[in-house]
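Students often ask why inverse folding is considered easier than folding. One informal answer: many sequences map to the same fold, so there is more than one right answer. In these notes we will look at a single instance of the problem. The structure comes first.
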């Protein structure tokens, strides 16, 4: 589905793109090109906010990210800010964040002028997948924008009840969530229903639309090596109704119109 809408003619709407792209572990420059191409395509479709997947510069289960990742703000967010500014879009991107000897699974929101306006660090970290593991984040927050209050979580945060409830307390108008939703090859496409149901439950609890963007590709290391990221990104209403779904195991820039703010 390329376009969908959940807005009456009289409502203020925001066009959001789920940029469901391939990401290759450790291929920073290639992944940046794939991100830029996706953002340009989304912008050409009229997107005002472009949402990318989890850890899409270095990969999710990639211990080398301890050496490759940069602080936030830093080199990686500078490159992403340039893309956002050039295309005049808000950009939500999952990336690895280095702080001292710690590595965080983070997501940043950059506005259409290239300013970093919000960062979230994943709280529900699966520590057994990588050594050393990601450090857990501690905070949940939202930011006031021209589209209303925007919040961000990351993947497994959305099936951790306490984290979802904390976000509900922030009363966002829109939640952007990057995913790295993976399973054995034989479990796709049916595994996408678990992603849909997770996003739908969180949307009902938090009370706002959720745009959840999954990655496409495979896990290249660790105990889940060879598992497939199957795409099937979802945009879901607060009533848990699916507005848009990304392709199964393939790249797609999926655009949806959502009511925002008052």
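Output (designed amino acids):
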């Amino acid at each position: 589905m390329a376009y969908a809408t959940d807005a009456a003619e009289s409502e203020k709407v925001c066009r959001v793109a789920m940029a469901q792209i391939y990401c290759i572990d450790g291929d920073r420059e290639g992944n940046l090109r794939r991100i830029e191409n996706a953002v340009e395509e989304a912008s050409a479709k009229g997107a005002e906010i472009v949402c990318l997947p989890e850890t899409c510069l270095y990969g999710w289960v990639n211990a080398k990210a301890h050496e490759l990742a940069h602080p936030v703000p830093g080199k990686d967010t500078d490159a992403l800010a340039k893309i956002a500014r050039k295309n005049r879009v808000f950009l939500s991107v999952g990336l690895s964040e280095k702080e001292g000897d710690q590595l965080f699974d983070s997501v940043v929101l950059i506005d259409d002028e290239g300013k970093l306006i919000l960062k979230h660090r994943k709280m529900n970290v699966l520590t057994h997948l990588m050594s050393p593991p990601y450090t857990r984040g501690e905070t949940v927050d939202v930011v006031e924008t021209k589209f209303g209050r925007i919040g961000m979580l990351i993947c497994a945060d959305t099936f951790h009840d306490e984290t979802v409830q904390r976000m509900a307390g922030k009363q966002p108008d829109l939640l952007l969530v990057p995913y790295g939703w993976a399973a054995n090859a034989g479990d796709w496409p049916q595994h996408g229903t678990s992603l849909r149901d997770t996003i739908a439950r969180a949307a009902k609890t938090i009370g706002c639309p959720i745009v959840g963007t999954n990655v496409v590709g495979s896990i290249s290391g660790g105990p889940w090596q060879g598992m497939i990221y199957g795409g099937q990104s979802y945009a879901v209403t607060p009533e848990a109704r699916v507005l848009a779904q990304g392709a199964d195991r393939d790249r797609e820039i999926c655009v949806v119109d959502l009511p925002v703010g008052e």
